[in-house]
Specification:
heterodimer, A: Beta-Lactamase, Helix Hairpins, Heat Shock Protein 90, 3 domains, 6-stranded mixed β-sheet, 5-stranded antiparallel β-sheet, B: alpha/beta, Rossmann fold, 5-stranded parallel β-sheet, 4-stranded antiparallel β-sheet, 8 helices
């Protein structure tokens, strides 16, 4: 198919129009954004608009008044000059015999020449004098071409015997047409009917009005610009400190707590700056106090840690020696050595967990993340947990994806979470199947630990991350856990920007899901694995304890 | 092997713990010596000439890390730190100051003994074996490392680390693997041990430790010896 040049042109035209429309839309959007963002621009433009409107109205009124006055003065002068002229003409035409074209023409010429030499207060002028007694009217103009230009309406009124005036565009001696005031009057006489016309060009008046107009426009524009400038300047005076305050607030928010506003003078802005600075100082004081408290807590934790652990080490070693020699003791003493050994283990675990959680409470935990392959990490935990699982006759199953899942994590903390979840499942899941699943997508990794134990009800799901909370008081202390494991795990997950969530249902077991971002500092948006085990059907009272403890 | 007369210097201010350590060490056939005062630690070290040092990191009034650094300046003897906290910068600082390994309180006697044995049972071969990575040559039997003829002094641990990598050039070792082979950890250990000691090793054998050519990092996996 061929396109005609016309079609092609039309297409090109359309594309140009589209382009222009697009550009103007973009430009309009940018301007709108600027308008919304800049108080200064808004004030300047609004001031300019208001001032402009005022100036336009005032100039129009002013101009109209000047014009009216000027024309009125001209009118009065013109009429009085015309009357003087008519008076003179009447005396001239008295003796002219009617019906004698020669003497009439002679008289007309003489009169007009005479009148032309007489000046008046109305400025320059031209004259036409006409006699209509003969079959063809005899006219004597100041210069040729003036007579036919006389306005017909005026001529008719004058011919009826009335004096009249009219504005009209008339030729001048130089040949140009200018707006003029034409005054016509009959010259009463017995010897015939004469008409006398005065033509006053208004070009001088027009020029002066134009001068006035351009002056008014120029000064009006200057005034508008000046007012807008003053508006912008005044706003600048106000806006600059506000902008400075905004910038300082941002700096404060970003942690530069020593930032303050300069205080100049004693005005409202200075007061604002003063209040702002007092607020900043108070914030800084409180934050520093909190930091000091946190440091103190850290020191305390560290000191307690050292002070407690050193004697505990001695006790531990002593207990170990007693324990390894228990075969030589009488039964009661041997049993005591055994109890000492196991309870020391619990004591140690509790101390470790307490110190860990107090470190989190003090905000002293920091993350040292390195890219780690999660598959081997999870597999190692399962290998380690295998003896316990066998003892409990639980069956551990690991499901790994085909591709490696590598995430930026602190391997020790994540290992601790997985170990906690797996041991938890073994302790509470009974002798059933325990499935551990790892999956990853582009931005996140997830590990689920599913058990088929007695499960949990609503309240239990909500409380499972609480400190020292135990699922079943009857079975409480057999698991050997400290009651802090899941709380620490959740803090560990949070430290990574991850989620640790639980799904549970009475009689159907539970599933914990750990979701971690692959890269630190990236917000989690979803998890590669569902929280609810997929083989199950949806339940009306399914409960989810999310990272914030939300229930749905 | 631990000789019957292997001497261990215990630097610890807690008398009960020191005594308990003494009982455990003697039970293992070691010969313990004690110093409680951090300020006297280095002079005691010079007198005792131990085969291994057990150093409490949190000695009141004295900086365990400083003691560690001073001992390391004049000796390649294995140093094991006793610390109350595993996940603090103190451990890394101690390792950087020259400690070879650390044990977290409270520890079991068996655990401590395993760490001590691992540090004392260093590579010993009688048959001659020579390895090379780039310009670095290793005489395994003679415990000698040279770079372009200049001898380089390595601690036994650093020596073992280098030999482990050099024996299988181009093979990538994970940190866990190195912890098992060089530190003799049977379970997972602290991978920071590997990181810090690789850095220490590099500072001795590399021309530019920032751009290593002998011990290379394989990102996300571990380390390998550079092309021979």
């Amino acid at each position: 198919m061929t396109t005609s040049p016309r079609t092609a042109r039309r297409t090109r035209f359309r594309s140009v129009v589209r382009e222009l429309r697009l550009r103007s839309r973009i430009g309009a959007r940018a301007a709108w954004r600027h308008w919304r963002r800049s108080l200064q621009l808004r004030v300047a433009i609004i001031t300019m608009a208001v001032a402009g409107a005022v100036v336009i109205v005032i100039s129009l009124i002013l101009f109209d008044q000047i014009r009216t006055q000027q024309l009125a003065a001209k009118n009065d002068a013109a009429v009085s000059q015309a009357q003087v002229g008519v008076e003179y003409a009447r005396n001239q035409v008295v003796a002219v015999p009617s019906g004698d074209p020669g003497s009439i023409r002679e008289t007309l010429k003489r009169t007009v020449d005479e009148l032309r030499t007489r000046g008046g207060s109305a400025g320059q002028f031209a004259i036409v004098m006409i006699n209509r007694d003969t079959t063809t009217p005899l006219a004597q103009p100041s210069f040729a071409g003036l007579t036919p230009a006389l306005p017909a309406r005026l001529v008719a009124v004058v011919a009826d015997g009335n004096q009249a005036r009219q504005y009209a565009v008339m030729p001048t001696e130089g040949g140009t047409d200018v707006p003029s005031l034409v005054v016509g009057a009959p010259v009463p006489s017995q010897s015939g009917t004469y008409e006398l016309y005065y033509v006053f060009p208004l070009d001088r008046e027009q020029r002066s009005l134009e001068d006035i107009r351009s002056t008014v426009v120029t000064s009006g524009l200057a005034l508008v610009v000046l007012v807008a400038g003053v508006g912008a300047l005044v706003t600048q005076l106000v806006v600059h400190p506000v902008r400075l305050a905004a910038k300082t607030a941002e700096q404060l928010a970003s942690g530069q707590l020593e930032r303050r506003l300069p205080i100049r003078g004693d005005d409202d802005l200075a007061r604002l700056a003063g209040s702002f600075n007092r607020m900043a100082a108070s914030l800084q004081r409180q934050i520093t106090q909190l930091e000091d408290l946190s440091r103190l807590q850290q020191r305390f934790t560290s000191d307690v840690s050292h002070e407690l652990r050193t004697p505990l080490t001695t006790v531990r070693m002593a207990a170990d020696i007693l324990h390894s020699a228990r075969a030589d003791f009488p039964p009661d003493v041997a049993r005591s050595a055994e109890l000492l050994q196991t309870e020391l283990g619990r004591f140690e675990g509790l101390l470790t967990d307490l110190l860990e959680i107090s470190r989190y409470d003090a905000g002293a935990a920091s993350l040292v993340a390195e890219p780690t392959d999660l598959g081997p990490l999870v597999a190692d935990v399962l290998t380690m947990a295998k003896p316990v699982a066998q003892q409990r006759e639980a069956n551990l199953v690991l499901k790994l994806p085909n591709e490696a899942v590598i995430a930026e994590i602190d391997p020790r903390r994540i290992e601790r979470i997985v170990r906690n979840l797996v041991l938890n499942a073994i302790n509470h899941g009974g002798d059933g199947l325990i499935e551990v699943t790892l999956a990853g997508n582009k931005s996140a990794a997830a590990i689920t630990v599913r058990d088929h134990g007695p499960g949990m009800n609503h309240d239990e799901v909500l409380r499972v991350f609480d400190r020292f909370w135990r699922a079943d008081p009857a079975r409480s202390r057999h698991g050997g856990g400290t009651g802090l494991g899941l709380s620490i795990s959740r803090e560990d997950a949070r430290l990574h920007g991850g989620w640790l969530q639980v799904w549970g249902r009475q009689g159907e077991g539970a599933q914990f899901r750990l979701t971690l971002p692959l890269r630190q500092g990236v917000e989690l948006e979803g998890s590669p694995l569902p929280l609810e085990p997929q083989t199950e059907t949806a339940d009306p009272y399914e409960i989810v304890a999310g990272p914030t403890g939300t229930t749905r | 092997m631990i000789g019957a007369r292997s001497r261990v210097l215990v630097v610890d201010d807690d008398p009960s713990l020191a005594e308990m350590l003494g009982i455990v060490l003697r039970a293992e056939g070691l010969d313990p010596a004690f110093v409680a005062d951090g300020a006297r630690a280095v002079s005691a070290f010079r007198e005792v000439r131990p085969d291994l040092v057990l150093l409490d990191l949190m000695l009141p009034g004295a900086d365990g890390i400083q003691i560690c650094r001073e001992i390391r300046q004049e000796s390649l003897v294995p140093i094991i730190m006793l610390t109350a906290k595993a996940d603090t910068v103190d451990v890394v600082r101690g390792l950087e100051a020259g400690a070879d390994d650390y044990v977290v309180k409270p520890f079991k006697p068996i655990e401590l003994v395993a760490r001590i044995r691992a540090q004392m049972r260093r590579t010993d071969t009688d048959h001659p074996e020579n390895l090379a990575i780039g310009e670095v040559t290793i005489d395994v039997a003679g415990h000698q490392v040279r770079r372009g003829g200049t001898p380089i002094l390595l601690t036994p641990l650093e020596f073992d680390l280098l030999v482990a990598l050099a024996r299988k050039p181009r093979q990538v070792f994970t940190r866990e693997h190195l912890l098992q082979q060089v530190w003799k950890y049977r379970h997972a250990g602290d991978t920071r041990l590997v990181n810090v000691h690789v850095q220490r090793l590099r500072s001795k054998i590399e021309i530019d430790p920032e751009n290593p050519e002998v011990v290379l990092t394989v990102r996300g996996v571990g380390y390998k010896a550079g092309p021979p």
